[in-house]
Amino acid sequence: MMRRRAFLALSLAAAAGAAVTGRAFSNDLDAARQRLAGRSRLVRTRFGQMEVAEAGDGPPVLMVHGTGGGFDQALAMAGPLLPLGWRLIAPSRIGYLRSDYPKGATPATEADGFAELLDALAIDRVPIIGGSAGAQPAIEFAIRHPDRCSALVALVPAAFAPGRPPVRPPTPLARAIIDHGLQSDFLFWAGMSVAQDAMIGALLATDPALVRAAAPAEQARARAILRDILPVSDRARGFGHDARFAGDPLPQALERITVPTLAISMEDDRFETAAAARHIAASVQRAELIIYPTGGHIWIGRQDALFAAVDDFLRRTAAAGPGDARG
After folding, report:
1. Does the residue 258 lie in any domain?
2. Overall pTM > 0.85
3. 17, part of any domain
């Protein structure tokens, strides 16, 4: 009788725990979808529909997000530019959220889509910022559409670099997160709940110890970047696209870039983007380079200095005349 009662108590506790977990997951997923609702609109291009959101006033800047993103990541990533007087144009890249994924899409496809987006928004020329995997299509935009691009910022660029050492292999737990967690909202949510450090290391390519030692606002920013990948199921096609192109980047015709260019990275970025930033700066005429010694892929502890440098660069290139961004 005692054993039966103990078993019943354990069964009830397990069921209650599962119910609590289920409610917590459902609430968090609903909150993620509500966070996206009503903030964007769709623009038709020859590559299908492209989702876009806008924020701020002033000269426009085209902000291109990285892996796991969407318009929301782009707005959050470049948010420090808003109080500095810039207007952010934030598309969801192909395969992310409500943007279509055309067959055979490449970073060049994305760049051509950006040009059509500018047509739809009646914008002549803009500076473009490409973050992480978004750097490749941003670079292609500068190459393919120099008449529409006034300046290029390659931010922690997941792009080609000759002789770059291979990215360190993920731990078994991190590999499980990448292989399975990026296909399932529940598994991704569970990973955030029980293995946040592993996810920061694997997906955000940043030393978890660096995040733990950072100021509270920076710790919150890191958690928000991870949390805002939900709903991951609405970003799965984009993840697949980035796995193909950003996982093993191909060379790009950097020598064809004629617009003012700034490349920024961190020495300790686990995605090894410092090598790509140096390659961009060495290959583009009169390009500028900023390498911070620490910060990881999400530039922990560098937020203020980094965007002050971006703001200064954008203002200097706009003041040059031909690079002025007009809306």
Report:
1. yes
2. yes
3. no
- Tokens encoding 325: 């961004």
Query: Helices H, strands E: what count in the chain?
Result: 12, 8
- Please give the residue range of the domain that contains residue 281: 41-165+240-319
**Residues whose CB falls within 8 Å of the CB of residue 45, separated by 6 or more in sequence, listed in order:** 113, 116, 117, 120
Give strand pairing partners of 181. none
Q: Domain for residue 286, yes or no?
A: yes
pLDDT in tens, 27-76: 999 999 999 999 999 999 999 999 999 999 999 999 999 999 999 999 99
pLDDT in tens, 129-175: 999 999 999 999 999 999 999 999 999 999 999 987 555 555 665 55
SS3 of residue 41 by DSSP: strand
- Which of 231, 213, 232 lies closest to 222 in space, CA to CA? 213
Residues 55 and 123 in one domain: yes
Q: Tokens representing 94?
A: 């192909």
Greatest C-alpha distance within the chain: 87
